[in-house]
């Protein structure tokens, strides 16, 4: 199957997530959580590491990452939505993790971080929100901000596996109400390989009969973002 294009604008996406931010965890958060946890397990954040999460939503993964890196590690998060950022900031304060997590509002196509500054990058149900020409740009930015040997783990709806009636209905809903059915299937491992990463592990599962791909990849020595 071909990867469908993203038709909504960035301003529309930001407004949509701001509206959903108060209750997002109650809707998407619960259904996505076990896949996020699988990605975190695959990433295997270690004590003392510096880790970036792109598209942190309401911050569930950031809490887990902050616990994994410990007091001598550091976690950064970037999200396009000020509303999601406010929800996440309150969650981090409640969990006692705000001191180890820095939050930024911004677009992943232009990450505001220094080259080689992270040991790992994590994305869950985020990369598939970007239009096709932006996906290689974002992965190039991941390659830029990662140190040599750094890891990137991506959890995303997948164009692999069985694409049955549920997939067809989902894509129809995505085309008609993209502000609420916003993700669409992509080819994660292929995109990472094309961006110059080496795939180290991958898993294909399903959520409500929709394929979900979890991929761990590594930045090799001499990697030049493309």
Q: What would you say this structure looks like, in words?
A:
The protein has 7 helices and 7 strands. With 226 residues, the protein is an alpha/beta fold. The chain has one domain: 3-Layer(aba) Sandwich (Rossmann fold). The chain has a 7-stranded mixed beta sheet with strand order 3-2-1-4-5-7-6. α2 packs parallel to α3 (60-69). The two termini are 24 Å apart. The mean pLDDT is 90.
List the helices and strands and how they pair.
Blueprint: H1 10-20, H2 24-43, E1 50-54, H3 60-69, E2 74-79, H4 82-94, E3 101-105, E4 118-124, H5 134-145, E5 146-157, H6 165-176, H7 188-194, E6 198-207, E7 210-218
Parallel strand pairs: 1-2, 1-4, 2-3, 4-5
Antiparallel strand pairs: 5-7, 6-7
End-to-end separation: 24 Å
Main β-sheet: number of strands, strand sense, barrel status?
A: 7 strands, mixed
Tally the beta strands. 7
Number of domains: 1
- Note the run of SSEs as H and E: HHEHEHEEHEHHEE
Total of DSSP H or I helical runs spanning 4+ residues: 7
Instruction: Name the CATH superfamily assignment.
Output: Vaccinia Virus protein VP39
Short recap of the structure:
With 226 residues, this protein is an alpha/beta fold. It is 38% helix and 24% strand. It has helices spanning 10-20, 24-43, 60-69, 82-94, 134-145, 165-176, 188-194; strands at residues 50-54, 74-79, 101-105, 118-124, 146-157, 198-207, 210-218.
Keywords, please?
Rossmann fold; 7-stranded mixed β-sheet; 7 strands
């Amino acid at each position: 199957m071909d990867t469908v294009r993203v038709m909504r604008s960035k301003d529309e996406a930001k407004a949509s997530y701001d509206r959903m931010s108060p209750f997002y965890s109650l809707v998407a958060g619960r259904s996505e959580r076990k896949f996020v946890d699988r990605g975190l397990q695959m990433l295997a954040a270690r004590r003392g590491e510096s880790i970036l999460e792109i598209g942190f939503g309401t911050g569930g993964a950031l809490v887990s990452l902050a616990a994994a890196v410990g007091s001598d590690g550091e976690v950064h998060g970037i999200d396009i939505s000020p509303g999601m950022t406010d929800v996440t900031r309150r969650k981090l304060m409640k969990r006692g993790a705000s001191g180890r997590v820095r939050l930024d509002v911004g677009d992943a196509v232009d990450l505001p971080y220094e080259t080689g500054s992270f040991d790992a990058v994590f994305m869950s149900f985020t990369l598939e929100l970007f239009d096709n020409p932006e996906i290689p740009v974002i992965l190039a930015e991941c390659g830029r901000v990662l140190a040599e040997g750094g890891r990137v783990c991506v959890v995303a709806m997948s164009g692999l596996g069985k694409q049955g009636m549920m997939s067809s209905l989902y894509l129809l809903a995505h085309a008609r109400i993209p502000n609420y059915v916003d993700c669409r299937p992509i080819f994660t491992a292929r995109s990472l390989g094309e961006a110059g990463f080496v795939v180290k592990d991958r898993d294909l599962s399903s959520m409500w009969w929709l394929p979900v791909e979890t991929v761990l990849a590594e930045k090799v020595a001499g990697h030049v973002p493309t």
